[in-house]
Amino acid sequence: MSTGFNPRTLLCMSRSWSTILVMTVCWLNDPLCGLAETSFTLPRTSSVTEQQIRDESLYLKEETVSIASRYEQPISKAPSDVYVITDEDIKSSGATDIPTLLRQVPGMEVMQTNSVDFNVSVRGNNQALANKLLVLVDGRSIYLDQAGNVIWKLLPVTLAEIKRIEVLKGPASAVYGFNAFDGVVNIITKSPEEMKGTTLQTAGGEVGTLLASMVQAGTVGNWGYRLSAGHEQAQRWSDQTAPALNGQRIGGLAEYRLSGDGKIRAEAGVGRANPYNGFVREASTSDGHFSQGYALVSYEQRGLLVRGWWNGHFGEANFGVTPVLAPLSSLTDRFGRTDQEHHQNTYDFETRYRFTPRETLTLNIGTNFRHILHSSNILTSRTAENRLGLYAQGDWLVLPSLEMSVGLRYDLDTFISPTLSPRGALVYHVNANHAFRLSGSLAYRPPTTAEARLNVSNHLILPGLPPMTTVALGSSDVRPEQIASYEFGYQGWWWDHRLRTRVTGFFNHISDLIAFRNPTDNPLNPVRPVNGGVADVYGGEVGVEVLMTSWLSGFANYAYQEVGQTSSGLSRRGFPHHKVNAGLRINWSPFRSEVLYHHVGAASYPLADAFTNLAPFFPAGTIIPQEHVPSYNLVNLRLGYLIWRQQTADYVREAEVAVSVFNALNDTHREHPLGDLLGTRVMGWLTVKL
Fold first, then answer.
1. For the chain, is the Cβ count within 10 Å smaller at the N or the C terminus?
2. What is the CATH number of domain 64-689?
3. pTM of this prediction?
4. In 177-278, which ranges are E strands?
5. By the 8 A CB rule, do 489 and 504 touch?
6. 41, pLDDT greater than 60
């Protein structure tokens, strides 16, 4: 949610008699400006009026986004449903991670299972291993092809570095390729100029949570740099068998500014996470670890982008079995080993060019190539895969009030047939304040490496029966999942641009869903992935954002969805029908506070048949997980106090102390049947910008 706060401290501290009235008006409308430390003298001939000050402070600003068309455009002109989380939203939320921030977006499915794992998807596609969302950092894909998921705790970026998060809901394969199945999240970081100075942040609190981060950025002539490092750890919530977290991340960026807003950039980073046992004061790191690194070089100039990057993901850990099944079951690779090792390296090369052959026409063409290498003892063999994509999109101003966007992408892959992903949209502007959007698109998700090459053995030791072994095998015959999506949207500005309303309706037809199934009644036969699942997902979202005064703002949104399914087993979707988000923000200097509310309706998530089939063999007193998850309510609070603030020539220096509360009502709940029991967490924060 963007609230468009615009500081006016320079206007408020004028010593000239001509601005005394202005200062009075400023105080009445914005108490925070009266506490500003920076002084600025307006000339007696200043043309600044009360109305101008009011216009400057009491309106919401429309965001500029790049995620929909891969170039900057007002959000009202975007051919897709886009939502923006701003830097101010991040600072005011008290969130410790990106998935918690995404909870406020209508239509987003956020599922936390323990201190380590989050699963994030869009509009009814939530699963325990979410594999249909494309996540980008500054446009660079971090999607893990091996399992199709995103490990959020490994992202080599701190929250302080993030400028905004753009969320595109709905398929976007026409411009992004295979993995933009149900949506795209683009995490956009601050430039060295925007991040200039030293930013230090530390936090600690319940559930053994410790956070620390440092960002140093600056510019020297045409050169800019940014260095960051962070540490995070948290113990288990309630379930003593659930993973805890001990993780670190570092990153660096250097760029050279060219004439004409061009730039050359090089950057690299790595994130590492280890489960650990015990409380923080007696933490011992386990043998398992997961690491994720990247390196990138890019050139950008006048609509042309050329870049290449490497992503690497490495892991070593013991096979994990759901604690309930541990007395009866154990997992190994095909050689009988109980530990898992995997390595994934991807090499990407991308070119993109945007030009305007006519004043009313913008063309965006591009190509990208990805080379994927997988090596793991849970796969049948080391795998190499190549993907080549070509796309073009045209945005045409048909009439002064009507815009049309048409895109088409052609993808080639080593293991599947070529695919075509089209997208079309019409945006009609009734006037400057009201716009309607109608769009349709087609997208694909290819089988993950695990779905195509998995080889894992499950050993069963049941009382009174001889040992049994079942095998889960991948299949090279499985086809890509496919989604056809249709959307209608409206955005309107009211009350002198102080109130924004948004309405979206959607219908998604998903076919060829992939799920591991036993094709026979014999439980000893191999389990393999098969196509066949079909789901129709439809619903709508409404939202409102309001700036009541320059220091008080709020938002509320509601999402409804329905899923009609013709498949069974693990391809079934678990989904809440109703979700509500609301927030209220107060920025009354030196105080800054926010209250966030999330309601997620009841849902039933499919579990493996093993829980039902093995129920008679569980030890007495074992609580068997149930598919039904009751509704829950989250209230997250943050109160910050600005203890020091100084305006320099280049940026603002400040220090803030804060306290945040996650789940303030202590509505203990699980967000998945196998998830940990989440309770309240209280944390203290110190943030210093030097």
1. C
2. 2.40.170.20
3. 0.89
4. 183-189, 197-205, 209-220, 223-234, 245-257, 263-274, 276-277
5. yes
6. no
